[in-house]
Amino acid sequence: PTLALTQAGIYTVTLSHSIPGSKVLQCGVYQESVQIEVFGPPAVTVSDDVFLCESESAVVSILDIEENGADVASVLWSLDGNIYAESGYNQAFDFNEYGVYEISVTVENQCGSDTEVVLAEIQPNPQIVVNSTPANGVCVGNMVEFTAIGADEMTWMLGDIEQSGSSFAFEAEASVEGTVQGSTTYEYVTCSSTVPFSIEVFDLPTAVLDVPEIVCLGDELVGEVLVVSGQPEYVVEWEVGNDEGLLDAGVGESYQ
Hints:
mainly beta; rod-shaped; single chain; five-stranded mixed sheet; 24 strands
């Protein structure tokens, strides 16, 4: 006979043979038994789907394998249909770009195989753009304002100062170098990026003025000024006047 065994297990098959007719009582019945061990394909259970931000890593694990009588012959990991690894019950994956990835693991024994799929949903990190007002530098003691776009929430960090919001205004000191972190929340994860911000801070000028305190009527007034600090190069403006008001004005390091 032909037997169809659809479940794994140990089966006993007994074959009986006897002489037909009345002689069966005289000669008895011949019996022979054989045990058949039936194996099945494996059944694999894996970890849950993955939700991450780009540039992060995940470990996908085989949680359980029901061998169904036969030893595991091979384990094959694939990423989007491409072979990724050919062994291991725990596999690490790096995701450098956002998107949806399909991770599959196939476990095989002599009777067949089982494949399970894990989806990896990778979200983009926010792209932060920072601008400042003024844009090209600020003098010590003046106000400067930074603004940032590209994320739902912004956190500014400058020395011991931490402030939330899309903008950050303060009085410029000798050095302005900080960072802003932008965060965007998706359905399952929150992704963030951190970028630096800075602005050049100009020192105020210090001038040494050389002008005679007394000058005779009709004589020429000659004065000079030396700018000993400050940046960038400053423009020197002269104003000459008396109690009645402004008499003259000029531009340059000397006046006459």
